[in-house]
Each structure stands twice: as C-alpha cells, then as structure tokens.
C-alpha cells in the first residue's frame, strides 16, 4: 500500500471540499460514465441500495432515475443539511459507516466510492458493518485509490509514502483489497482514471496529458469532457479501453463483490 499524507479527511474537510462543487455539476460529469455502466450491470434492481459516504449525492440522483430504491448517508453534516435543502427529493441523511442504524441483512446493495481508504486504522470495521447490513447474495461495489504499478515504481524508495502533514489516505493494491474482502466473492475487478495519474504524478506525463487532453479539461470516473478535437477524443477513448493501460496507470480500483460467504466472526 501507499500511504499519503496531506491533511486529515474529517467531516470539516469534506464540508469544505463539497462546498466548492454542486450536485448538478457532478451529475453532468458522472452521467454516462464508466462507473454508471458498472452500477447498471451489477446492482440488483430489487431491494434497497445504500451509498455509504455519498458526498453531494449525484449517484443517488442518477440511480433513482434508473429505478433503484437508493438512499445515501454521509458524516459531513453541513453538506447533508445543504443537500436536504437543494435536493429534497433525494433520500440523504447524516450517518456513520462504522455504525449503520440499519437492520441485519436489510440491503440488496451497497456502494462505497472513495471512503474506506481515509481511515488510518484500516477498513476492517467498516467492512464488517457492510457485511452485516447486506442480505445474503447482496452486492457490494467499492472503489479506493489504487497502488498502480506506476506508483509502486515511483515511491519504492520512499518507503511507499507520499506527501507531508496529517494522514490523508491509502492507495491499496489488488491483493490487499482481496484480503480485506475475503468474506465476499469477487465478481469483477477493474481500474479507472489513468489520466489523473498521468496528470498528478509525472511532469513528463503531465505534458503528454495536456497535449492530448487540453490543460483545462476535467476528468472524473473515466469520463473526459470538452476535449478539443476528435483525434484527441478518440485517443483518450481508445486508451481507456485498454485494461492493461488502466491497470498500469489507474488512479482508482473498483471491486464488485457478492455477500455469499460465511459470516465474519
């Protein structure tokens, strides 16, 4: 794993972070994305779905449109208050992923996008709670920052540590993720956002990224928007199709899991 230091990702941090964005802005970026395709492929249409750590709730909004019975929880109190005012139609409330006020086996699906990596003590307690609230054969979809092969090479001589300040997050590799979720069956593994790694981790690759994508472009969840011309757009699309490329440079890893193994003791 790669351990990243920046600042503590507490509720105040996320309130400040999300205050700079809006649900509608993220909705427009994420609609039609790589992640949306994964959700539609794997999430069950029956039963209730939870997004634990839902942020601005754009995924709740997107999946409601697809007919899912989904609700979101987040511990960023001011963000939740704002969402309840601006998007009252969405079922979003304050909650704690370590202590979900939900009955055992009550969910058919659980989504966790960039959440479990932010706790220095590790994700085990959160995962135990995930398993408790999922029904037998329930689906869990988890994303975390990925310790890609590129990052392994870059930070090998830094004791797999990056940055300064307080603990911020971990980047996990595939074997670590499988170990954390050994009480689940792995259905699917994939990687995304390789261009974020290109942009953030190498000055040489950053120049390449800017050349093919434009210096002011946004990328999120495998989507590229406002690309300057058709050749650049085609190159990005074709590179994103290559799983080996996504594995080597991917910023995030996504696991789809099924709750069909023995209970955690």
CATH architecture: 3-Layer(aba) Sandwich
CA-atom Rg in angstroms: 18 Å
CATH topology (level 3) name: Rossmann fold
| Tertiary shape | globular
Rounded mean pLDDT score: 91
What is the CATH H-level superfamily?
Vaccinia Virus protein VP39
Spatial ordering of strands, largest sheet: 4-3-2-5-6-12-9
Provide the helix percentage: 25-40%
Assign the structural class, choosing from mainly alpha, mainly beta, alpha/beta, alpha+beta, or little secondary structure. Answer: alpha/beta
Total helical segments: 12
Q: What is the beta-strand fraction?
A: 15-25%
- Integer tally of domains: 1
Pick out the low-confidence regions. none
Tell me the name of the CATH class. Answer: Alpha Beta
Order of helices and strands: EHHHEHEHEEHEHEEHEHHEEHHE
- Cα distance, first to last residue? 25 Å
Largest sheet report: 7 strands, mixed
**Total number of β-strand segments?**
12
Summarize the topology.
Blueprint: E1 2-6, H1 11-18, H2 23-30, H3 34-42, E2 48-52, H4 58-65, E3 69-74, H5 77-86, E4 92-94, E5 107-113, H6 124-133, E6 134-145, H7 149-154, E7 161-163, E8 166-171, H8 174-180, E9 185-192, H9 194-201, H10 203-213, E10 219-220, E11 223-224, H11 230-241, H12 243-249, E12 252-258
Parallel strand pairs: 1-7, 2-3, 2-5, 3-4, 5-6
Antiparallel strand pairs: 1-8, 6-12, 9-12, 10-11
Helix pairs in contact: 2-4, 9-10, 9-12
């Amino acid at each position: 794993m790669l351990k990243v230091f920046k600042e503590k990702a507490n509720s105040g941090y996320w309130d400040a972070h999300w205050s700079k964005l809006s649900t509608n802005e993220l909705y427009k970026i994420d609609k039609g994305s790589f992640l949306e395709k994964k959700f539609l492929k794997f999430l069950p249409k029956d039963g209730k779905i939870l997004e634990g750590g839902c942020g601005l709730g754009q995924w709740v909004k997107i999946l409601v449109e697809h007919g899912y019975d989904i609700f979101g929880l987040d511990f960023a109190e001011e963000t939740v208050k704002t969402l309840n005012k601006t998007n009252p139609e969405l079922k979003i409330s304050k909650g704690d992923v370590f202590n979900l006020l939900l009955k055992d086996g009550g969910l058919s699906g659980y989504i966790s996008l960039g959440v479990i990596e932010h706790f220095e003590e590790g994700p085990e307690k959160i995962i135990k709670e995930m398993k408790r609230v999922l029904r037998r054969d329930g689906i869990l979809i988890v994303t975390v920052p990925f310790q890609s092969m590129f990052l392994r090479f870059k930070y090998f001589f830094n004791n797999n540590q990056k940055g300064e300040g307080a603990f911020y997050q971990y980047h996990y590799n595939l074997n670590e993720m499988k170990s954390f979720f050994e009480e689940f069956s792995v259905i699917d593994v994939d990687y995304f956002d390789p261009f974020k790694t290109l942009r953030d981790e190498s000055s040489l690759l950053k120049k390449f990224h800017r050349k093919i994508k434009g210096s002011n472009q946004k990328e999120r969840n495998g989507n590229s928007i406002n690309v300057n011309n058709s050749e650049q757009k085609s190159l990005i699309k074709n590179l994103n199709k290559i799983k080996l490329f996504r594995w080597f440079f991917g910023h995030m890893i996504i696991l789809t899991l099924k709750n069909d193994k023995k209970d955690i003791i």
